[in-house]
Amino acid sequence: MQKGLVIWFTGLPNAGKTTISKLLEKELKLKGYDVERIDSDEVPRSLTKELSSDWFIRQKQKSTNIIYVAKLLYKHCIIVLISSVGRLRKMRETARNEIDDFVEIYLRCSLNTRLERDQLAKYSRYPSTIHYYEEPNHPEMIIDTDQLSPNDAVQQILDYLSAHGMIAGAKVDEYT
């Protein structure tokens, strides 16, 4: 039976969180792991309580909801992939403190590349808050997503997880 694990992909919008977490989900499922992906852009409103109109409080509430769901899945030996900016370092640290098997992966990316990827115009729609982000102090991994392909990033993550005994050795399938 597999052991639960929570991996939080953090970084500014358009750094590659959704892309890389989807690829990792696919690879882990191909290798027989039970995996669930929680993407903060896709968390249904029915799952979350009413959010505050205050931006900072809303960020905390969104992270609290994600952490709660991740803990439930983790408890049932699921590998949970969180794809969320997680703007407040304190909230990611809360997850780390409440979940024994936790990995924080900081996806770092230049502003120019993030702007090139911004198909939803988030940077122009939310100019007052889009750049607010507290970088992690000690993430398990930092991946520069403007320098690596998504498949290479996923391979680095699989290598890390394998080297630390979190999964069996794994190689990214060439056709992904």
Provide an overview of this structure.
- The chain has 6 helices and 5 strands.
- It has a single domain, classed as P-loop containing nucleotide triphosphate hydrolases (Rossmann fold).
- The protein has 176 residues and is an alpha/beta fold.
- Strands 2-3-1-4-5 form a 5-stranded parallel sheet, sandwiched between helices.
- The protein is globular.
- Keywords: Transferase.
- InterPro entries: APS_kinase_dom, P-loop_NTPase, Sulf_AdTrans/APS_kinase.
- It comes from Tepidibacillus decaturensis.
Helices and strands, in order, run as EHEHEHEHHEH
* Lateral arrangement of strands in the main beta sheet: 2-3-1-4-5
Indicate the CATH class. Alpha Beta
Q: Which structural class is indicated by helix and strand composition?
A: alpha/beta
- The tally of structural domains comes to 1
Question: How many β strands by DSSP?
Answer: 5
Descriptive terms for the model:
176 residues, alpha/beta, Rossmann fold, 6 helices, 5 strands, 15% strand, globular
Secondary-structure map:
Elements: E1 5-10, H1 17-30, E2 35-39, H2 55-75, E3 79-83, H3 89-98, E4 102-108, H4 111-116, H5 122-125, E5 141-144, H6 150-163
Parallel strand pairs: 1-3, 1-4, 2-3, 4-5
